[in-house]
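Posting this for the archive.
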Amino acid sequence: MNKSRFLQGKRIAPTPITKETSVVQLIENNFQAYNAARLREGAQLFAERMLADDVTVGLTLTGALTPAGLGISAIIPLIEAGFVDWIITTGANLYHDTHFGLGLSMHRGSHQISDVVLREEGVVRIYDIFFDYEVLLSTDAFFREIIRAEEFQREMSTAEFHYLCGKYVAERERVMGLRNQSLLAAAYHHGVPLYTSSPGDSSIGMNVAAMELQGGKLRINPSADVNETAAIVLTAKRGGGKSAIFICGGGSPKNFALQTEPQIQEVLGIEEKGHDLFLQITDARPDTGGLSGATPSEAVSWGKIDPDQLPGTVVCYVDSTVALPLITAYAFAKREPRKLKRLYDRREEMMNLLKSEYAKSERR
């Protein structure tokens, strides 16, 4: 019997889940439809295509992921395995990440506890995560102390700033006998550039501002970030490879990663086509007009996504704290570690490429 072309998909006949079911079996055999299917497609896209040796992977992070332990459980392992080459995140994620690198504790709690009571007891709440108010004060004091160092008294990109911060957090980990607790330290060790799209919008930025009142000379240059991130993408493409973006959440880090292509094409006038692979985990709807929910097809109209690569895009509507651990576990089961690209060490080389192509542009 001739069947419709729309009935060529794999038959839904899942294997029953047992105590022997692995993460790979669970995702491939039991995530059959709806957002479970999108999560399956996303995990397969990441492991099978994004982690090819010639693909440069950018990760964006929004939402309070590091306080929930995702830095330790998922992001640091991805960095160490060479599965993430550069990162854009909120400053808050890096600030709360530093708590772990300093040996400060975060605790499971309940979102139903009175915030008035918590305030009276000196406990800070991030939904169902609790920590002592002194954790904030200790982390603030740490950043103010290191920012006083001479090497910080200049203008720099957020990648440079976070690299220097990571060096100090890594040393604190070493002295305290801690290991693999801080994303900042892991990025420093593995040459992964860390960018923040809104450097003033976090407690780290607040402490930088405080030190400026005391005569500090540190200046964060957002233009350097715009050009450096564009240079990373251009270098990936000009080297015969591909550019992949893995988005956890949305917001400003998402746009900052995707605007690299309009910066290259629209502003600098360099011939390019857009990112090749796109995976987004989000809980935002597209119909409200917000960037967090904008689809890959909409991004094509901006030149952010290569229109020929739309089959290489997946959007999964699920909480990042659910999806990221599953995708990480799936990737480790399916892929061997990749050679580290150490893009932080190559910033000057990549910027020289961007400058040389811009010099030929008619937009100058």
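The longest helix spans residues 158-176. The mean pLDDT is 94.
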